[in-house]
Amino acid sequence: MSAVDETIVREYFEAHGFLVCQRRKYIVQARQRTADEEIDLIVLNPRAASPGAGVPADFEITSNSLKQVARAIVAVKGWHTEVFAPSVLAHQPKIFRFVENRAVEEAARLVGTEGLLKILIVPGLPRDAKSRERSIEVLRAKGVDGVISFRSILRELIARVATNRNYVKSDLLQTLRLLKNYDLIKEPQMELKLRTRNRKR
């Protein structure tokens, strides 16, 4: 995971009031990472309704359903060139190492086990409904409790950034602010589908 990907995800969780911890401060190169080293972030929501707040109803977690998450292990897979289709999931077993017992035990030592979810940050799921459902089935079967897409994270961060504020303590937010200020990125807009009717003259 690149530092940029991690920064984006960290800012997103912090914007929602989560406390964020990065357990691993080093990069593994000469050997395979252990399960606990696959955890990118551990997040804790001090404003959750209850410590054991349930799993969000929708597998694809949104900003609204994120409020239900009390604590979670987060793995960030910033492969921005492809979606997490069933074929990708079948050939990438390392994706699921962060849900193994050793990883869960590591997170539990820090934030406890009650309501501890396993959340995967992905570039996106397939657009095709059948492939999308199959991907969700595979992820659930492997122990993933929910996914958040980079698209939704970036859309929300862009929407939250105000051009009249100086985000000197966040390089990411300051960059987004400058891009918005110079009209290089726009506010997310609703997509309206307009039907055209053939009129007889």
How much helix, percentage-wise, in residues? 25-40%
Q: Which H/E pattern describes the elements?
A: HEEEHHEHEHH
Biggest sheet strand order reads 1-2-3-4-5
Largest sheet: number of strands, sense, barrel closure: 5 strands, mixed
Question: Can you tell me about this structure?
Answer:
The structure is a single chain. The protein has 201 residues and is an alpha/beta fold. The chain has one domain (3-156): Restriction Endonuclease (3-Layer(aba) Sandwich), CATH 3.40.91. Helices cover 32% and strands 12% of the residues. It has a 5-stranded mixed beta sheet, with helices on both faces. α4 links the parallel β4 (116-122) and β5 (146-149). α1 packs across α5 (150-160). The protein starts with a helix and ends in a 20-residue tail after the last helix.
Supply the key terms.
single chain, 201 residues, alpha/beta, Restriction Endonuclease, five-stranded mixed beta sheet, 6 helices, 32% helix
What does this entry show, briefly?
It contains six helices and five strands; from the N terminus they run H-E-E-E-H-H-E-H-E-H-H.
Question: How are the SSEs ordered, and which strands pair?
Answer:
Layout: H1 3-15, E1 19-21, E2 41-44, E3 71-76, H2 86-90, H3 101-111, E4 116-122, H4 129-141, E5 146-149, H5 150-160, H6 171-181
